[in-house]
Amino acid sequence: MSHDAHVYSKSQTEYEYTRRVRREAMRGQVTTFAIMIFLTLIAFSAVAAGFSEYFIVPILLLLAAIQVVLQLYYFMHMSEKNHGMAAFFLYSGAILGFTLFLTFLTIVWWN
Amino acid sequence: MDFNTKYTPQSWPDHPEQVTLEGKNKFLGFWLFLAGETVLFSSLFATYLALKNKGPSGMEFSTQTLFELPLVFVMTMILLTSSLTSVYAMYHMKNHNFKGMQTWLAITVILGIAFLCLEIYEFNHYVHLGFTYGQSAFSTAFFTLVGTHGLHVAIGLGWIILLLIRNAKRGFSLYNAPKYYTASLYWHFIDVVWVFIFTVVYLMGVVG
Protein backbone atom coordinates (compact mmCIF):
# COMPACT_ATOMS: atom_id res chain seq x y z
CA MET A 1 0.00 0.00 0.00
CA SER A 2 1.05 3.61 0.37
CA HIS A 3 3.24 2.86 3.35
CA ASP A 4 6.86 2.35 2.52
CA ALA A 5 8.00 1.63 6.09
CA HIS A 6 10.06 -1.50 6.49
CA VAL A 7 8.86 -4.50 8.47
CA TYR A 8 9.92 -4.04 12.07
CA SER A 9 10.78 -7.14 14.05
CA LYS A 10 10.57 -7.02 17.85
CA SER A 11 13.50 -8.14 19.96
CA GLN A 12 12.90 -11.20 22.17
CA THR A 13 12.41 -9.08 25.32
CA GLU A 14 10.10 -6.67 23.53
CA TYR A 15 8.12 -9.57 22.11
CA GLU A 16 7.73 -11.27 25.48
CA TYR A 17 6.67 -7.95 27.00
CA THR A 18 3.89 -7.34 24.42
CA ARG A 19 2.67 -10.89 24.84
CA ARG A 20 2.45 -10.39 28.59
CA VAL A 21 0.60 -7.08 28.16
CA ARG A 22 -1.87 -8.77 25.80
CA ARG A 23 -2.37 -11.68 28.18
CA GLU A 24 -3.17 -9.27 31.00
CA ALA A 25 -5.57 -7.34 28.73
CA MET A 26 -7.27 -10.64 27.91
CA ARG A 27 -7.65 -11.38 31.61
CA GLY A 28 -9.37 -7.99 31.90
CA GLN A 29 -11.72 -8.98 29.09
CA VAL A 30 -12.66 -12.18 30.91
CA THR A 31 -13.39 -10.12 34.05
CA THR A 32 -15.60 -7.83 31.94
CA PHE A 33 -17.41 -10.92 30.69
CA ALA A 34 -17.94 -12.17 34.26
CA ILE A 35 -19.40 -8.78 35.24
CA MET A 36 -21.74 -8.87 32.23
CA ILE A 37 -22.95 -12.37 33.14
CA PHE A 38 -23.51 -11.18 36.71
CA LEU A 39 -25.53 -8.13 35.54
CA THR A 40 -27.65 -10.38 33.32
CA LEU A 41 -28.30 -12.76 36.23
CA ILE A 42 -29.40 -9.84 38.45
CA ALA A 43 -31.75 -8.55 35.72
CA PHE A 44 -33.42 -11.92 35.15
CA SER A 45 -33.70 -12.85 38.83
CA ALA A 46 -35.10 -9.40 39.71
CA VAL A 47 -37.88 -9.96 37.18
CA ALA A 48 -38.44 -13.54 38.37
CA ALA A 49 -38.68 -12.28 41.99
CA GLY A 50 -41.63 -10.12 40.92
CA PHE A 51 -40.89 -6.68 42.40
CA SER A 52 -43.08 -3.67 41.60
CA GLU A 53 -42.92 -2.40 38.03
CA TYR A 54 -41.93 1.13 39.01
CA PHE A 55 -39.02 -0.16 41.06
CA ILE A 56 -37.77 -2.71 38.58
CA VAL A 57 -37.91 -0.92 35.20
CA PRO A 58 -35.33 1.79 36.07
CA ILE A 59 -33.02 -0.92 37.48
CA LEU A 60 -33.34 -3.03 34.32
CA LEU A 61 -32.52 -0.01 32.13
CA LEU A 62 -29.54 0.88 34.31
CA LEU A 63 -28.18 -2.71 34.16
CA ALA A 64 -28.61 -2.73 30.37
CA ALA A 65 -26.80 0.62 30.05
CA ILE A 66 -23.83 -0.62 32.11
CA GLN A 67 -23.63 -3.80 30.06
CA VAL A 68 -23.71 -1.89 26.75
CA VAL A 69 -20.96 0.48 27.95
CA LEU A 70 -18.79 -2.52 28.95
CA GLN A 71 -19.41 -4.17 25.59
CA LEU A 72 -18.58 -0.98 23.62
CA TYR A 73 -15.57 0.20 25.63
CA TYR A 74 -13.91 -3.15 26.36
CA PHE A 75 -15.07 -5.80 23.88
CA MET A 76 -15.21 -3.28 21.01
CA HIS A 77 -12.06 -1.47 22.29
CA MET A 78 -13.56 2.03 22.37
CA SER A 79 -11.54 2.76 25.51
CA GLU A 80 -8.29 2.40 23.55
CA LYS A 81 -6.72 5.40 21.84
CA ASN A 82 -7.41 6.20 18.20
CA HIS A 83 -11.16 5.70 18.71
CA GLY A 84 -12.25 9.37 18.66
CA MET A 85 -13.97 9.17 15.29
CA ALA A 86 -15.55 5.83 16.21
CA ALA A 87 -17.05 7.41 19.34
CA PHE A 88 -18.13 10.49 17.37
CA PHE A 89 -19.97 8.34 14.81
CA LEU A 90 -21.59 6.09 17.38
CA TYR A 91 -22.78 8.92 19.64
CA SER A 92 -24.14 10.84 16.63
CA GLY A 93 -26.12 7.75 15.70
CA ALA A 94 -27.30 7.30 19.28
CA ILE A 95 -28.46 10.93 19.56
CA LEU A 96 -30.30 10.74 16.24
CA GLY A 97 -31.83 7.42 17.31
CA PHE A 98 -32.95 8.88 20.63
CA THR A 99 -34.67 11.77 18.81
CA LEU A 100 -36.52 9.24 16.63
CA PHE A 101 -37.50 7.36 19.74
CA LEU A 102 -38.94 10.50 21.45
CA THR A 103 -40.77 11.53 18.27
CA PHE A 104 -42.44 8.15 17.76
CA LEU A 105 -43.52 7.86 21.38
CA THR A 106 -44.90 11.39 21.71
CA ILE A 107 -46.84 11.06 18.43
CA VAL A 108 -48.37 7.70 19.33
CA TRP A 109 -48.87 8.07 23.08
CA TRP A 110 -50.20 11.63 23.15
CA ASN A 111 -52.80 11.33 20.42
CA MET B 1 4.48 -3.26 4.00
CA ASP B 2 2.20 -4.67 1.36
CA PHE B 3 -0.52 -7.25 1.41
CA ASN B 4 1.77 -10.10 0.43
CA THR B 5 4.40 -9.60 3.12
CA LYS B 6 4.68 -12.66 5.33
CA TYR B 7 4.88 -11.92 9.03
CA THR B 8 6.17 -13.80 12.05
CA PRO B 9 4.75 -13.35 15.56
CA GLN B 10 7.75 -11.03 16.24
CA SER B 11 7.22 -8.80 13.21
CA TRP B 12 3.40 -8.81 13.31
CA PRO B 13 2.29 -5.19 14.08
CA ASP B 14 0.49 -4.39 17.34
CA HIS B 15 -2.62 -3.17 15.49
CA PRO B 16 -2.53 -5.18 12.26
CA GLU B 17 -6.04 -4.02 11.37
CA GLN B 18 -4.96 -0.39 11.09
CA VAL B 19 -1.57 -0.54 9.40
CA THR B 20 -2.64 -0.16 5.76
CA LEU B 21 -4.72 2.69 4.39
CA GLU B 22 -7.39 0.18 3.42
CA GLY B 23 -7.48 -1.15 6.97
CA LYS B 24 -7.85 2.37 8.42
CA ASN B 25 -10.65 3.15 5.98
CA LYS B 26 -12.42 -0.12 6.79
CA PHE B 27 -12.19 0.62 10.51
CA LEU B 28 -13.66 4.15 10.17
CA GLY B 29 -16.24 3.17 7.59
CA PHE B 30 -17.36 0.27 9.73
CA TRP B 31 -17.98 2.49 12.75
CA LEU B 32 -19.99 4.84 10.53
CA PHE B 33 -22.02 1.82 9.42
CA LEU B 34 -22.58 0.85 13.07
CA ALA B 35 -23.88 4.39 13.73
CA GLY B 36 -26.39 3.84 10.92
CA GLU B 37 -27.36 0.50 12.45
CA THR B 38 -27.93 2.26 15.77
CA VAL B 39 -30.43 4.59 14.07
CA LEU B 40 -32.14 1.64 12.35
CA PHE B 41 -32.58 -0.28 15.61
CA SER B 42 -33.66 2.87 17.50
CA SER B 43 -36.50 3.37 15.05
CA LEU B 44 -37.53 -0.28 15.37
CA PHE B 45 -37.43 -0.08 19.19
CA ALA B 46 -39.46 3.15 19.08
CA THR B 47 -42.04 1.47 16.82
CA TYR B 48 -42.20 -1.56 19.11
CA LEU B 49 -42.69 0.51 22.28
CA ALA B 50 -45.33 2.66 20.57
CA LEU B 51 -47.30 -0.39 19.40
CA LYS B 52 -46.63 -2.78 22.31
CA ASN B 53 -49.77 -4.77 23.24
CA LYS B 54 -51.83 -2.80 20.68
CA GLY B 55 -54.12 -4.76 18.37
CA PRO B 56 -57.71 -5.69 17.56
CA SER B 57 -60.10 -5.45 20.51
CA GLY B 58 -60.23 -8.61 22.59
CA MET B 59 -56.72 -9.65 21.49
CA GLU B 60 -55.55 -12.46 23.78
CA PHE B 61 -51.84 -11.93 23.13
CA SER B 62 -49.81 -9.65 25.33
CA THR B 63 -46.18 -9.51 26.39
CA GLN B 64 -47.17 -11.08 29.73
CA THR B 65 -49.00 -14.10 28.30
CA LEU B 66 -46.57 -14.71 25.43
CA PHE B 67 -42.97 -14.50 26.61
CA GLU B 68 -41.14 -17.24 28.46
CA LEU B 69 -38.04 -16.13 30.33
CA PRO B 70 -36.08 -19.44 30.55
CA LEU B 71 -35.72 -19.60 26.75
CA VAL B 72 -34.70 -15.92 26.57
CA PHE B 73 -32.21 -16.48 29.39
CA VAL B 74 -30.55 -19.35 27.52
CA MET B 75 -30.43 -17.30 24.30
CA THR B 76 -28.87 -14.38 26.18
CA MET B 77 -26.18 -16.56 27.76
CA ILE B 78 -25.35 -18.15 24.38
CA LEU B 79 -24.98 -14.80 22.62
CA LEU B 80 -23.01 -13.24 25.47
CA THR B 81 -20.61 -16.20 25.49
CA SER B 82 -20.20 -15.95 21.72
CA SER B 83 -19.15 -12.34 22.24
CA LEU B 84 -16.35 -13.50 24.58
CA THR B 85 -15.24 -16.21 22.15
CA SER B 86 -14.82 -13.61 19.41
CA VAL B 87 -12.73 -11.52 21.83
CA TYR B 88 -10.53 -14.63 22.21
CA ALA B 89 -10.34 -14.90 18.41
CA MET B 90 -9.06 -11.30 18.16
CA TYR B 91 -6.60 -11.98 21.01
CA HIS B 92 -5.10 -14.80 18.95
CA MET B 93 -5.08 -12.60 15.85
CA LYS B 94 -2.97 -10.02 17.68
CA ASN B 95 -0.64 -12.82 18.78
CA HIS B 96 -0.39 -14.06 15.18
CA ASN B 97 -1.81 -17.46 16.10
CA PHE B 98 -3.86 -18.37 13.04
CA LYS B 99 -5.09 -21.78 14.25
CA GLY B 100 -6.17 -20.26 17.57
CA MET B 101 -8.18 -17.57 15.83
CA GLN B 102 -9.82 -20.08 13.48
CA THR B 103 -10.79 -22.29 16.43
CA TRP B 104 -12.36 -19.47 18.45
CA LEU B 105 -14.21 -18.07 15.43
CA ALA B 106 -15.55 -21.55 14.74
CA ILE B 107 -16.82 -21.75 18.35
CA THR B 108 -18.41 -18.32 17.87
CA VAL B 109 -20.17 -19.58 14.74
CA ILE B 110 -21.47 -22.69 16.55
CA LEU B 111 -22.88 -20.55 19.39
CA GLY B 112 -24.42 -18.17 16.84
CA ILE B 113 -26.11 -21.07 15.07
CA ALA B 114 -27.47 -22.34 18.42
CA PHE B 115 -28.87 -18.88 19.14
CA LEU B 116 -30.51 -18.68 15.72
CA CYS B 117 -32.07 -22.16 16.09
CA LEU B 118 -33.62 -21.14 19.43
CA GLU B 119 -34.99 -17.96 17.87
CA ILE B 120 -36.51 -19.90 14.97
CA TYR B 121 -38.05 -22.32 17.50
CA GLU B 122 -39.48 -19.36 19.45
CA PHE B 123 -41.00 -17.65 16.37
CA ASN B 124 -42.39 -20.97 15.15
CA HIS B 125 -44.02 -21.51 18.55
CA TYR B 126 -45.68 -18.05 18.45
CA VAL B 127 -46.98 -18.59 14.92
CA HIS B 128 -48.52 -21.92 16.02
CA LEU B 129 -50.31 -20.09 18.82
CA GLY B 130 -51.83 -17.79 16.18
CA PHE B 131 -49.48 -14.87 16.89
CA THR B 132 -48.54 -14.41 13.24
CA TYR B 133 -46.74 -11.50 11.59
CA GLY B 134 -49.99 -9.84 10.44
CA GLN B 135 -52.07 -10.67 13.54
CA SER B 136 -51.82 -7.21 15.14
CA ALA B 137 -49.79 -4.01 15.25
CA PHE B 138 -48.02 -5.55 18.27
CA SER B 139 -47.08 -8.77 16.47
CA THR B 140 -45.77 -6.90 13.40
CA ALA B 141 -43.67 -4.56 15.54
CA PHE B 142 -42.35 -7.50 17.62
CA PHE B 143 -41.40 -9.72 14.68
CA THR B 144 -39.85 -6.81 12.76
CA LEU B 145 -37.65 -5.76 15.70
CA VAL B 146 -36.55 -9.21 16.89
CA GLY B 147 -36.51 -10.59 13.33
CA THR B 148 -34.21 -7.80 12.11
CA HIS B 149 -31.83 -8.70 14.92
CA GLY B 150 -32.09 -12.38 13.93
CA LEU B 151 -31.33 -11.41 10.32
CA HIS B 152 -28.21 -9.61 11.56
CA VAL B 153 -27.13 -12.76 13.40
CA ALA B 154 -27.65 -14.79 10.20
CA ILE B 155 -25.68 -12.27 8.12
CA GLY B 156 -22.90 -12.19 10.74
CA LEU B 157 -22.70 -15.99 10.68
CA GLY B 158 -22.54 -16.04 6.87
CA TRP B 159 -19.85 -13.36 6.95
CA ILE B 160 -17.62 -15.16 9.48
CA ILE B 161 -18.07 -18.54 7.76
CA LEU B 162 -17.13 -17.07 4.37
CA LEU B 163 -14.09 -15.33 5.90
CA LEU B 164 -12.97 -18.60 7.49
CA ILE B 165 -13.38 -20.57 4.26
CA ARG B 166 -11.87 -17.96 1.92
CA ASN B 167 -8.79 -17.42 4.10
CA ALA B 168 -8.50 -20.99 5.42
CA LYS B 169 -5.08 -21.63 3.87
CA ARG B 170 -3.79 -18.08 3.65
CA GLY B 171 -2.56 -17.36 7.16
CA PHE B 172 -2.51 -13.80 8.44
CA SER B 173 -1.71 -10.81 6.25
CA LEU B 174 -2.39 -7.10 6.46
CA TYR B 175 -5.01 -7.82 3.80
CA ASN B 176 -7.23 -10.11 5.88
CA ALA B 177 -6.54 -8.81 9.42
CA PRO B 178 -8.96 -5.81 9.01
CA LYS B 179 -11.58 -8.20 7.66
CA TYR B 180 -11.48 -10.38 10.78
CA TYR B 181 -11.44 -7.30 12.98
CA THR B 182 -14.56 -5.70 11.42
CA ALA B 183 -16.40 -9.03 11.49
CA SER B 184 -15.73 -9.29 15.23
CA LEU B 185 -16.89 -5.68 15.78
CA TYR B 186 -20.10 -6.55 13.96
CA TRP B 187 -20.59 -9.60 16.15
CA HIS B 188 -20.20 -7.49 19.32
CA PHE B 189 -22.67 -4.96 17.98
CA ILE B 190 -25.21 -7.77 17.52
CA ASP B 191 -24.77 -8.53 21.21
CA VAL B 192 -25.21 -4.82 22.10
CA VAL B 193 -28.57 -4.84 20.29
CA TRP B 194 -29.56 -8.07 22.02
CA VAL B 195 -28.91 -6.51 25.46
CA PHE B 196 -31.56 -3.90 24.62
CA ILE B 197 -33.91 -6.55 23.20
CA PHE B 198 -33.83 -8.84 26.23
CA THR B 199 -34.24 -5.84 28.54
CA VAL B 200 -36.85 -3.76 26.71
CA VAL B 201 -38.84 -6.47 24.92
CA TYR B 202 -38.65 -9.52 27.18
CA LEU B 203 -37.88 -8.43 30.75
CA MET B 204 -39.89 -5.19 30.64
CA GLY B 205 -42.58 -7.11 28.74
CA VAL B 206 -42.93 -9.69 31.50
CA VAL B 207 -42.90 -6.98 34.21
CA GLY B 208 -45.74 -5.08 32.62
UniProtKB/TrEMBL annotation, chain A:
One Pfam family cited in the UniProt record for this chain: COX4_pro
Membrane topology category: Multi-pass membrane protein
GO cellular component terms, semicolon-separated: plasma membrane
Name this protein carries in UniProt: Cytochrome c oxidase subunit 4
The keyword Transmembrane helix is annotated on this UniProt entry: yes
NCBIfam families: CoxD_Bacillus
Lineage: Bacteria, Bacillati, Bacillota, Bacilli, Bacillales
Domain of life: Bacteria
Subcellular location(s) of the protein: Cell membrane
Keyword Lipoprotein set for record: no
Main location: membrane
Keywords: Cell membrane, Membrane, Transmembrane, Transmembrane helix
UniProtKB/TrEMBL annotation, chain B:
Source organism (scientific name): Psychrobacillus insolitus
GO molecular function: cytochrome-c oxidase activity
Membrane topology: Multi-pass membrane protein
Domain Heme-copper oxidase subunit III family profile per the UniProt entry, residue ranges: 1-206
UniProt keyword list: Cell membrane, Membrane, Transmembrane, Transmembrane helix
InterPro entries found in the cross-reference section: Cyt_c/ubiquinol_Oxase_su3, Cyt_c_oxidase-like_su3, Cyt_c_oxidase_su3-like_sf, Cyt_c_oxidase_su3_a-hlx, Ubiquinol_oxase_su3_dom
Transmembrane residue ranges: 28-51, 71-91, 103-121, 141-165, 185-205
Name of the protein in question: Cytochrome c oxidase subunit 3
One Pfam entry name: COX3
SUPFAM superfamilies attached to this UniProt entry: Cytochrome c oxidase subunit III-like
